[in-house]
Amino acid sequence: MKQIVYRGVEHGEALRVVQAQRYEREERRLFLNGARAKAVFGSGVYLVSNPEIAAQYAICHAETMWDKAAVLRQELLLPGLFCLDERYGENELRMDALRTRHSTKDLESHTRRMDTQEWLEWTGDEVRLYLISCGYRGIRYRISPDLTYYICYEPDAQISQISILSVLDVSEIT
Fold first, then answer.
1. Pick from 147, 145, 172: which is nearest to 54 by CA?
2. How far apart are CA 102 and CA 130, in angstroms?
3. What's this model's pTM, rounded to 2 decimal places?
4. Which helix (H) or strand (E) is 105 found in, with range?
5. Which residue from 6, 130, 154, 164 has the highest number of Cβ atoms inside 10 Å of its Cβ?
6. Is the pLDDT of residue 31 over 50?
7. Is the pLDDT of residue 152 over 60?
8. Using an 8 Å Cβ cutoff, are 127 and 93 in contact?
9. Residue 52 pLDDT greater than 90, yes or no
10. Residue 10 pairs with which residues in a beta bridge?
């Protein structure tokens, strides 16, 4: 089963991605405006169900690179995704992953040594390793009826038919 999903990037990257039919980088990134693309579920390609949300990400990427923004449309294979929703969400998954992989003493030690950003990156990597060890290929996280996030740990095998949906000139928006 496949789903149409979106990702926002700068225009130059969009052209390269469409040409190669694969993503050249994963999610973690610091933008010029101070915003961060946080990979709270570990390294992978992060996609969304809503093209307007993807456009917001595209604008952040474009401002960083002094480029136009682009929204990419692609097909995503859904089998093998771990499902999160309002009943079992990000915090529950993180705690299950950490408790499975570490003792309470080990977790306390990590907490004392890390700042918030380091903790988010480390726990994201722990979630990713936990899910992969359980046989999952990524995550489907239903935020609301209008928005679902998809995280792909095997993007080359999961994502296909990448095309440009829209291009936005950031200088005309701001």
1. 147
2. 11
3. 0.88
4. helix 104-113
5. 6
6. no
7. yes
8. yes
9. yes
10. 69
